[in-house]
Amino acid sequence: MNGPFVLPVRDIVRKPGEMREHSFTVALAEQWGEGIVSYEAGSKLDVDVRLESVHEGILVSGTVDAEYAGVCGRCLTDIARPVEVEFQELFAYPGEEETDFEVQDDHVDLETLVRDATVLSLPFQPVCQPDCPGLDPNTGERLTVSAGAEQAAPIDPRWSALQQITDQGRAAERGATENTEES
Fold first, then answer.
1. Is the pTM of this model over 0.90?
2. Distance between CA 180 and CA 182 in Å, rounded?
């Protein structure tokens, strides 16, 4: 067995209480994740892992530091954020029971475990900032960038006659205010 996520455990197999720690960096050969954010091919994962021998197998605990990239779910600007993911799994010794993870040829392969943990940590609706207002529905511009004047909501044509009355009332108020100021 070989690969960037394969670690030897020959020296701790069937020796409960023994422990080894490993730290390594892996450059991803392919993209991990399929949403609007993912871990790009070539991005680096920093993995710190502890391998502990127990009666049932090898207990693997660790953390992964990585950075995901993609676009904001509201305003579609590019974003990249760091993420730290913790994981823990028992790699059982081969035997009668079927398990998801097993010690194979005195090695443990962490790729599936690390991939599952990191991809599941990706946000479902990522945003560039917590209060991102998104895009203007009429112009398509980012609302945080738009320096234009506040646009009034379109008026339902059935209510437009009332708008004219309101406009006449405002004009009358302005005229009365101007007359009072002149006096």
1. no
2. 5
